[in-house]
Amino acid sequence: MKDERTRAFDLDAPVRRYITKKLIAVEHDSTVQDAASRMVEFGISSLAVLRDREVVGFFTDADIKERVVAAGRSPAVPVSEIMTTELITADVTEPIRRILDLMSDHRIKHVLITEHESIVGIITLRDVVDMERRRLETYIAGE
Amino acid sequence: MKDERTRAFDLDAPVRRYITKKLIAVEHDSTVQDAASRMVEFGISSLAVLRDREVVGFFTDADIKERVVAAGRSPAVPVSEIMTTELITADVTEPIRRILDLMSDHRIKHVLITEHESIVGIITLRDVVDMERRRLETYIAGE
């Protein structure tokens, strides 16, 4: 019985329970270099991009590698030229299982989280592994 | 009983069982731009760096962001100037649980895998999530 409850909790619990971090953002006209510095400062691997207080794009370590360095572009270009505009999101009320599916199906490492259709947070691949690790610790502690 | 075996399998199984990818490498005198292009070509987020056929360093998306773009350095510098030389490894005979511990304790996304003290492969944060997903699918299929 304990096992069933533990397992049900993991996958069917709403995303809301697992959002631990605020989403960090930069303005659309920031340079790629400034955006990269901000990511380093906060120890994160993705950023939201804002225009008129609205999230208009998303920007990751992989974009810096692929669309700037490998492509031979200058880090002085604005993030708006590099960002991804197709945002992949899940609602806070959806089960955590949905996050795993999105990350696997789209080969992405970050899913933006929405509530009432506004973006309110983010869940990363690392968050998923950290959750798993906590689940294991809880299981071991309960043995 | 089935539950116990499934859980034991996951964490105590040797790392060997989970290595699915070859480690991709570049020579130490490759430029950062060439290394980034190679990572894009293979769809990977890290590379081993070789000198005289030996792995002397490791290079990731995060290094490109932090030590090249945020630091304002040219992508024409050799990877040897940017790479991490302190390699974090696990042996193929160690349990998969050890990989989770290393990724969490060192805040890293890639662990190099050794066999008889030679580097033979890599396990990434994504691999761990993919394993977890397969475990869940197996569990669901077995219900």
Helix content of chain A: 40-55%
What gross morphology of chain A would you assign? globular
What fraction strand of chain A?
A: 15-25%
Low-confidence stretches of chain A: 1-9
Overview in brief:
Two copies of one chain form a homodimer. With 143 residues, the first copy, chain A, is an alpha/beta fold.
Description:
Two copies of one chain form a homodimer. Helix content of chain A is 41%, strand content 22%. Chain A contains five helices and six strands. A three-stranded mixed β-sheet of chain A has the order 1-2-3. The relative contact order of chain A is 0.19. Chain A binds chain B through residues 3, 7, 11, 32-33, 36-37, 39-40, 43, 45, 61-62, 64-66, 68-70, 72, 75, 97, 100, 103-104, 107, 109, 125-126, 128-130, 132-133, 136, 139, and chain B through 3, 7, 11, 32-33, 36-37, 39-40, 43, 45, 61-62, 64-66, 68-70, 72, 75, 97, 100, 103-104, 107, 109, 125-126, 128-130, 132-133, 136, 139.
Itemize the secondary structure elements and their pairings.
The structure is a homodimer of 143-residue chains.
Chain A: H1 2-12, E1 25-27, H2 32-42, E2 46-51, E3 54-60, H3 61-69, E4 89-91, H4 96-106, E5 110-115, E6 118-124, H5 125-141
Parallel strand pairs in A: 1-2, 4-5
Antiparallel strand pairs in A: 2-3, 5-6
